[in-house]
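The material for today's practical consists of a large collection of protein records. An example says more than a description, so a record of this kind follows:
***
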Amino acid sequence: MNSKDLLRTASRTFAIGIERLPGVLCEATTIAYLLLRVSDYLEDNEEMETDQKVGLLNLWVNILREEADIETLTRQFTHADTTNPDAIVAQHSKEILLQMRSLPYAVQEIIVRHVIHSTQGMARWTQIGPNVADEKEMDDYMFEVAGRVGYLVTQLFAWYSLTIRRKEQEIMPLAREFGLGLQTVNVIRGLREDFERGWVYVPKKFLSEIGLTKEQLFDAENRERALQVLDMLTDKAERHLHEALKYVKSLPWWQHGIRLGCIFPLMFAIRTLAVCRRNAQVFESEAKITRADVKKIVLDSTLWGWSNLWLDKYYQELNTVKS
């Protein structure tokens, strides 16, 4: 299975944006995304004990450093549950690494450095456990799994485009915010699923301010107070995504493929946020936008995404209109 097929297997939604990136950027971002999905598989694996997950995450780091052999990891995946797309990606990690070695050396260095840092962060949080005390801890976790991805793609864009390279330092903080915004939306839409596997990413401080425990957050009798916690999360997501919009607008209009690679996930996220806002259903099941929403966002953005004035208007439209 080639990297393009693996990307679509792992996430059709992210594939939509990544496949719009020009030339080698598309291939590089695909490889980076797949390598991070291997890390995700190890971090999220429900069949492994904490120590085993941490050990394998550290092994994966050593493999990326070329200090260990990939077969020592892939042997662990022989009987993996292939209904999980991440398991399929992990089983093909040797081929993904081989494909990465065909990329320009500078691109390989950017990818490996950031995937290593993110994987080390996942290992640290796996050891800490499934609780975050406050918003600062939540941001720390989300930075490791998503904010660093913002750094990674920004440095790839800067390698590709002189215009972006000139403003790289200026937009790096916005790249972090972009990652935090996408991850906060992921936390909101996946509240129930995460709770059922033993993880609650809602800061304890948010819960204590409303007088709830993490278990009470999901009790039907506490819906009104739970919605107040949801308000805190959606407000937080919106703050991050507003900065993400600035990031997208800072990209040169003529690099339409790069812009679309960022516009799609941003607009999917803000639309998802609109669906989740004040919606008690998020405590029962995963919140999703419709396929019609996805198709419309892709079409509209492809036609008009070069315009910053249009981006401002469209962002507000998606943020306020509900299904």
User: Anything to note?
Assistant: DSSP finds 17 helices and no strands in the chain. The chain has a mean pLDDT of 94. The radius of gyration is 19 Å.
